[in-house]
Amino acid sequence: MSERDITQPRDKGRNIPPVAISETSTLVNPTGSWKYIMPRYEDRVAPCNAGCPVGIDIEGYMYLIGQGRLEEAADLLVRENPMPAVTGRVCHHPCEHSCNRASLDEPVAIHSVERRLGDMILAAPPPPAPERTRTETVAVIGSGPAGLSCAYFLARLGFCVTVFEAASEAGGMLRLGIPEYRLPRAILDRQIERIAGTGIEIRTSVRIGTDVPWTDLDEFDAVFAAPGAHTGKDSTIEGAEGVSAIRPGLEFLKEVNAGARPDLGDRVIVVGGGNTAMDCARSALRLGADVTVLYRRTPREMPAIPLEVREAKDEGVGFEFLAAPTAVELEDGEFRGITCQRMELGPPDDSGRRRPVPIEGDVFSMTADTVLTAIGEDCDLSFLPDDVRTNWGLIEVDTLGESTSTPVFAGGDAVDMPRSVADALGAGKRAAIGIDHFLREKAGEDVGEVPLGALRFGEGNVSALRYAEDEDPIPREAPVNETVTWDQMNPHHFRTAPRHEDHFHNAIDLRSAFGETNFGLNEREAIEEAERCLNCGVCNRCELCLIFCPDMAISRRDDGGFEIDMRYCKGCGLCAAECPRGAVTMTREGI
Amino acid sequence: MKKVMIGNHAVSWGALRSRVEVISAYPITPQTQIVEALSDMVADGSLPAQYIKVESEHSAMAACIGGSIAGTRTFTATSAQGLALMHEMLHWAAGGRLPVVMANVNRAMAPGWTIWTDQNDSLSQRDTGWIQLYCETNQEVFDTTIQSFKLAETVNLPVMLVLDAFYLSHTSEPVDVTEQEDVDRFLPKREAAFKMDTSDPRAFGALVRPDAYTEMRWQQQEAMLEARDVFRRVEDDWEAITGRRYGAVETYRTEDADLLLVTSGTITSTARHVVDERRAAGEKVGLIKVKMFRPFPTDELRELLGGVDRVAVLDRNISPGHGGIFAEEIRAALYDVPPEDRPNLFGYILGLGGRDVTPAVIDDIIDNTRSTARPEREDLWVGVEL
Amino acid sequence: MSQTIIKQHIPQDELLASGHLACPGCAAPIAMNLVLKALGPETMVVLPACCWSIIAGPWPQSSLQVPLFHTAFETGAAVASGIKAGLVSRGDTKTTVISWAGDGGTFDIGLQALSGAAERNEDFIYFCYDNEAYMNTGIQRSSATPWGAWTTTTPTSDPEHQPKKDIMAIMAAHRIPYAATASVAYPVDLVEKVKKARTIRGTRFIHILAPCPPGWKTQNDETIDLARMAVERRVFPLMEVENGGSWRFTVDHPGGSVEEYIRRQARFKHLTDRQVEIIQDQVDARWEILSNRVKYGT
User: Fold this and answer.
1) Of C136, C282, C271, nearest to C210 (Cα)?
2) Total-model pTM
C-alpha cells in the first residue's frame, strides 16, 4: 500500500506554467559538446611579405592604410625598409609577382603604395634619432643600399655607426647607376639625409685601402663591407680593345648621373638586356641619339624590369633581339659599326633560361657611333685582407652576412646574391642583426642562436621589428609563420577591382629631359590601391565568420579581435571554409 | 432594445456588443449570416474590428489563434464540415489556453450532403478542450455569446456556443439586445494573461517533453473544472444586469417527477410544451435541459437524476458503435450514484440530419419509457422506417 | 573596396542565441540570424512545424530574442494574418510579423494558407527556408525536392521524378508587392532584401535556399559553398519580383556546368552523367524562362 495518495498533485516547486511559455534562452544547452573538430584563429603570412627581399610587412601596412591609419602604416614601413621613397620607385617589386591577387584579377600595385607612403614620410618632419644605447661601434664600407640599410638598422639597435664612402656623395649605385628620370636626386638626397638623421656618420670621399688603411678599422668592433660592383665587364667584341667608341655602359651612366652630357653621336647601340642596359639606352636617348638595344635572347629572357623595357620602347628605343655583337667594323680606320651574329634559343642553361646559340652564317652589320656594353659588373675587393675569403670574385658570407673573418660582415653586390636594391637592403638588415647578435655574444650576453625561422616572413627575409621584439601594431591571432597560398583562401568573397596604374609623363615630351617619368599615384588612388589588398592570411575583421557561424559562437572582443565560444561551437568548419584569407584553421587539438 | 432577429444575427449582435477585435471566418451554410452581418457591422464602422476573410475554416481558426495570442478578443463561426476541418486547430487553441469564442451552428455531417441540424459536428469535437454551451432560443444565443467571452477570458479556455441549424439560425424571435454600456460593464476590454510582446519576448508552444506535458494537461483540466463555477458567477453578473440566467443545467417542472426528459438545443422547447400537457394531465413528468456539455455538469446531473425512476435522454446525435452521446455521458455520471438510486435510463436517438422532432415524437418517447420495463439496448432509435 | 566588410552592411546585434539545436553546418540558423538582424527586435515570429521547431529549443527555452509562436504545419500564413490583425486592432502598426516556414510548410501543406494570405495581401513577411525535403522528419521528398534527388521516400532505385515546384512564379502570380529569392551565401543581398521588404506593406515573400548537410549528404563546412554554387550555376538564381510583374536579377549568375554542384551532394550520387545532363537542361531551360521574365515582365 502506497504511503501517499498518488492521485494528489504534489507541489515540488517546479513552477510548470499552464502552457509552454519560454523562460530561458537556449544558452543552457552546451551544444559545443557535439564537436569533434574545432576552429582556431591563426594568422598566416601573406605571400608579398614572404616574397620581399627586404623583409617588409607589406600586408601589415596595407591593413593599416585600409583602416585609415596612414601614419602607423608609414611607421611600420620604415621599421623594415630604410628607403621606401627609393624602393617605391626603383625596386623590381617581386612582392607583386607573389601577390595572390593576381589569381583574382591583377596584383596590388604595391610599389605605388610604397612610393606614396615613402614620399609622405619624407614630407613629414623627421622623427627623433634613436637613442645610443650601445657602446660598440661599427664601420660600414659603402653607402649604397646594403651599407645604408645595415647602418640604419644598427643605429636603430643603438649602435654608433660610421659609413665610409669612396665617392663624393653617398648613395652608391643608387646615385651612380640609376638615372635621375627614375630616381630624382632630390628624393635620393632626402632619403639619405633621413637615414643619416638616425645618428649615422657618413664620411664621403674616403676609400678604404687607399685613403684609409684597412687596419684603421680595427678601432671598430665590427665591419660591414658593401663595396658594390662598379667595374663593367669587358666586352667580347673582337677588335674592341682601344676603340673609344666602344665603352662600358656603367661608366657612361656614372658620367651622366654626375651631370655630364657626353656626345655619343647620332646612333648608339646598347649591348645587354638588364637594367643597366635600359638605363644606358634611355639616357643615350635623352642625349639625342637613336638607340638600339642588342640582346642575345628574346624579350622573355630579359632580366630588366619589364616596366623599364616598356618605358624604353615607349620613348623610342629600338630593340634587336636574338643578336650578339661579334666584331668591330672599321671604315678607313674609323669605327663604323659592329658585326652581329644572329642567334636562336637552344636548351636551357644553368640559370634555367634558354641558352642562345649562333645560327651559322647568319651575320649582319649595324652601324653606330657609340656602342655601350652593359653585360654585367665585377667587384674590386682588393682592399680586403686575405682572411676574408672570396669566391669567384665575391665575398663568402653566411645568412647573417658574416664573412670568414670575424668581425667582418658583408652584403650587397659584393656577395653572391641577386643584384637588386631590395636584395641589398635585405642583406644589410640581416647583417645588422648578425652584428648585433655577434656583439651581444661578445659582451657576454646569453643570446643563443638567432631565431632566423621566427624572424622571417614565411620563407622570406627577416623582420627587424620582430628581432627588436617591438610591438606589432597589428594584433595577430596565434600567428603561424607559413605563407598562405591562394588555394587556402576563399576567393568568392572578393570583388574584382582594377589595379591603379602609375601616371606617366608623356614619353615623347621626355625624350630630351632627365625629369622623372613616373609620377606614381595620388593619395586617393594609393589608398584605394591599398584597399585592394586581400590581407592574405591575416584576419582583417571582415566578420564573415560571425555571419556564417550557424551557432552564434563567435563574438567580438574588446580589442577588435574575435573569440569562439567553445561551449557552443559545434565544429562545423564554416568559419574556416569561408574565411576569405585563410586565417581560421580547423584542428582536433584540445578537443 | 428589443429586436426581432434570426438566431444567426443574435450571434452577430452578441459579438458586436462584446466588441470583438479580430474576426476571421469562412462561409458555410447555415452559419453564413452570422459573418455576413458582422461584415456589414465592420464595413459601416459600428464594429471597429479587423476582419480576415480567410480561404478555409482551418485558416479561420488559425487566424483567431493569431489574434488571440496577440492579446485581442477574437471570434469566428462555422458549421459541420468547417468545424471538422478546424479540428487540429481546436486543439491548438485549447492547449494554447487561448480564449477564442466560436459559434457553431449545428449541422449534420456529410455524406450524403445535408445542411440540416444535428449535433454530431460539435460533439465530435468533445475532446479538443473547448467549453461547449448549447442554446435553446435566440435570446439565449445572444446572451451566451457575450457570456462566452467572459467565461473564456476568465479561465483561458476557448468556448464554442452552439445553436441548431434553421430551428434557431434562420428562425426569427424577439431578442432583448442589451445596451452597449451594460455589456461594457459586464465585459471590459480583454487583458491577456500572456501574449506576444516584443518587450517581453517569449516562445509559445515549444516542444514539451514527457516530464511536463502531463502537468500542463492537468492544469488545462483544472481550468475546465473551474469553468463550472466561473460560469455560475458569469451568470450571476449577467443576471444582475439583464435579469436573465439559464444555468449549466436547467430544470423544468421536475418537482416530484418520476420520469425526466433530458434534452439540449431546440428540442427542449418542444419538450417543455409536451411536459406542460402531461403535467396538465396529472403526469409527473419533468424536463432537464443540459446547456453545458463541456465541462460536463456531472454533480448537478447526479443530484437531479439520482433517485428518479425513469430518465429519457433525447440525443440528436449518434456515436456510431455506441449510442447517443448525452445518454452515454449521463450513464457514466450516474454510475457513482448508489445502486438503489440509479434511474432506469432510456437513450433515444432522434432528429438526425434535421428530421423534425414533433410533440408527438416526444409523447411517444414518454409512453415508451413508461411502458418498457428496461431498455433493450443503449441506443433506442426513434422513427426509423426502412 | 574589393571585399565587402560585413559590419558596414549588416547590423551587429544578434537576436538569435547560441545553444540552439540545429545540426552542425545548418543553413537555417544562419538565415534566421541574418533576417532578424535586418528586422530588429520589433519583430514577431510565427513558426509552423519545420526543423526550426526543434532549433528554437524545447520548452522552457527559446533561441530567439523576439516573440515566437509555434504553430501547426499548414498555418504559418494564417496565424501571421491573425497576429497582425490583432496588433493593428490594438493600434500597433510598426511591429513586423513574419512567418518562418520550411519548404514542406510552404510548397506543400502550407500553400493554401499562404495563397489565401497572399491573395488578401496580408501585411507580413513570409520566409521559406528551403532545404528541399522534409528534413525534420528524416529527409522525405517534398514538392521542393529537385529532380533526381534521393530522399528516404525517393530511393535511389526510384529517385524524385518531378522538378522543383516554381514557387516564385506562384507567388508572383498573386501579384504581391514583393517577392524575392535569397541565399545564405550572399548575406548582404539577403539583408538588403529583408530591409527592403520591411519597408513595404502587404504580403512579402522571401525564399531562402538553405543547404542541409545531413539531408543533402554533404560535409558540414560545404553549406555556404553549395549555396553559392547554386546561385552561380543558375540552379537558384537570386531575384526580386515586384507586384508580380517586374522581375530582376540581383546578383551576377555566371552560369557554367551544374555538374560540380550536383556531384558534391551525395543525394545525387546515383545519377548517371546523362542524368546530370538532364538536370543541366532543366536549369538552362528555367534560366531562359527567368531571363525572359526579367526582359519582358511576366
Assistant:
1) C136
2) 0.90
